[in-house]
Amino acid sequence: MQVYRFREKRSGDRPCVVTIGNFDGMHLGHQALTGAVVNEAKDRDLSSALVTFHPHPQEILHPRRPVQRICTPQLQNRLFEDSGIDEVHVIPFTPELAELDADTFASRYLLQRFKLEKLIIGYDFRFGKNRTGDFILLERLGQENGFSLEEIAPFRIKSQIVSSTLIRQLIREMRFSEVEEYLGRPYSLLGTVQKGEQRGRILGFPTANLIPEIQLPLPAGVYVTKVKTKNETFFGVTNIGTRPTFGEDEFRAETWIMDFEGELYGETIEIWPLKSLRAEKKFSGMEELKKQIEIDVNQARHFIQETPVGLKEGNPC
């Protein structure tokens, strides 16, 4: 898979099948859409391409309301690659772009960018200033410019439309089994381990630290987790939040990994929340925090012993 920032030129002018959208979560609805693109491209010996945006358009349109993202950037890229898409094109979404009318947007970011044979969109895709661009406008552009158009119907589970909005709400409510049903996989965080202040070592519980780089829908708190690092999988206890005991405000996920020894700095790890133990709270100092961590670890071990939780990848519960 080749990733292009939008000012970069494509590697060639091969005719292609294209889709466009935000794709946060790459849930089952997104997978149906990208699957249709990949299959169409293979059947016609064309290239497949996905166009998306960074940052999320709503973060520019409504800057005081940050968008909580389902996927960390690393996970999003891995899911794009797993989909079989040949090319991912990332549009820098800016206030200037938000002011473009629909015709100009389509011309600049689709017609001038690709040798477009077919465009496949989701049922709810809108574009251009005030979201005036729709299927009818794209259908006209297709007739004028020689590409075909297909709209994918909403993906439903038990009559419920699968959407990123729904999944974010389920994550906020920590309904992880339902999240898995709509994502088509267990909910997880993926990232590179960063070096922290090493307070965990002082407390006797050294942690692997991830900085998500995004706003998460997952509530701040302590969770029993499954952790995959390198080629091994473990259980862990993960604090997600800003560590108020130490007066810090950087949001991160700190995981103490059970039965693990070694260094993980610079390694990629994936974390699956299994159960919430408690909300994040501020402690009076290191000694009180250490006592609470010991309680958290005992509760986590009890949960693992009493619950049929497996370490098989992709099936944490």
Give structural attributes:
2 domains, Elongation Factor Tu (Ef-tu), domain 3, 317 residues, 6-stranded antiparallel β-sheet, 6-stranded parallel β-sheet, alpha/beta, 10 helices, Rossmann fold
Q: What count of helical segments does DSSP give?
A: 10
How many separate structural domains? 2
* Fraction of residues in helix: 25-40%
Q: What is the global morphology?
A: elongated
Rounded to the nearest angstrom, the radius of gyration is: 22 Å
Low-confidence stretches: none
Described by strand count, sense and barrel closure, the largest sheet is: 6 strands, parallel
Q: How are strands sequenced across the largest beta sheet? A: 1-4-3-2-5-6
Overall SS class: alpha/beta
Mean pLDDT: 90
What oligomeric state do the depicted chains represent?
Answer: single chain
Structure commentary:
With 317 residues, the protein is of the alpha/beta class. The protein folds into 2 domains: 2-161, HUPs (Rossmann fold, 3-Layer(aba) Sandwich); 188-306, Elongation Factor Tu (Ef-tu), domain 3, CATH 2.40.30.30. The chain is built from 10 helices and 14 strands. The strands form 3 sheets. It has a 6-stranded parallel sheet, sandwiched between helices. The chain has a 6-stranded antiparallel sheet with strand order 9-14-11-12-13-10. A hairpin with a 2-residue loop joins strand 11 and strand 12 (232-241). The protein starts with a strand and ends in an 11-residue tail after the last helix. The model has no long low-confidence stretch (mean pLDDT 90).
